[in-house]
Amino acid sequence: MASVRYNSRPGPARPDAGIVKVSTWDVGTPQRQRRTVEALGEAWGGRDRPLPGLLSYSVLTGEDGKTLLHYSQWSGEEAYQEFARSGRDARDAEIDRAVPGIERTGPHTYELYRSGLRGGGAGEPGCVVIVDVEFAGPDPARQRDWVDAVFEAMESDPEPVPGGIAAHFHVGTAGDRVLNYAEWESAQAHIDALAGDGEGIGTPTPQWKRVQSYPGMTGGGVHRYTPALSLVPASRRTGRDGTKCV
Q: pTM here?
């Protein structure tokens, strides 16, 4: 049976994740948001069969009171597709019986490209900020160059903002989007950082201006979330003697 850990988070930088799947659900109200998290825990935690290739599955609640972010790490695309064929619909149906009318978007597929610490990287994150960036057409080299430009801007910033813990940049396997899973001490720390002199996070340096006006960017968004639960598959847990539980 999967282990359900409430108010916990994934480890975005784990090296054994071949791909990451990210999707969002719109459930409408804070009450339905809470009930959906409970239903997810029940649907996933109540199954004994392990899912080969699933490394972690986490759910985060949006501060808007109606959205949920789903972040799952897999050994590879084949493992996810096998789950989609054999187990996803049954779980979704169980959740839909508890909370009818969920609007689902995605999933999008990513690979982790670069991770880095911000502000010393200390403490447990009280807030996760998801930054989505979309580009005009597939270009894997452009995705990575933009991320590299962000790291250059962060490393050269004369006044780094406090409250940031870590940034985990994922590039879309379709070649046209980037996702930053950014961990912050609190939502207020992120709000204060946005209130600075620059356009967004960071001071108005040439490096940050290059990031913000990068050619080919067509859209995106910034949303704050709170970790709600993480599920550790049965095949990944170990007993006290070190043997795997199945």
A: 0.89
* Higher-scoring residue by pLDDT: 48, 17: 17
**Looking up tokens 């940034």, which residue turns up?**
167
CA distance 71 to 226: 13
Q: Where are the alpha helices (DSSP H) in 46-114?
A: 77-86, 88-98
- State how far the Cα of 245 lies from the Cα of 50, in Å rounded to an integer: 9
Q: What separation, in Å, do the N-terminal and C-terminal C-alpha atoms of the chain show? A: 7
Task: Estimate to the nearest angstrom the gap between the alpha carbon of 138 and the chain centroid.
Answer: 21
Q: pLDDT tens, 139-179?
A: 999 999 999 999 999 999 988 888 899 999 999 999 999 99
Distances (CA, A) of 73 to 23, 85, 91, 184: 12, 17, 17, 21
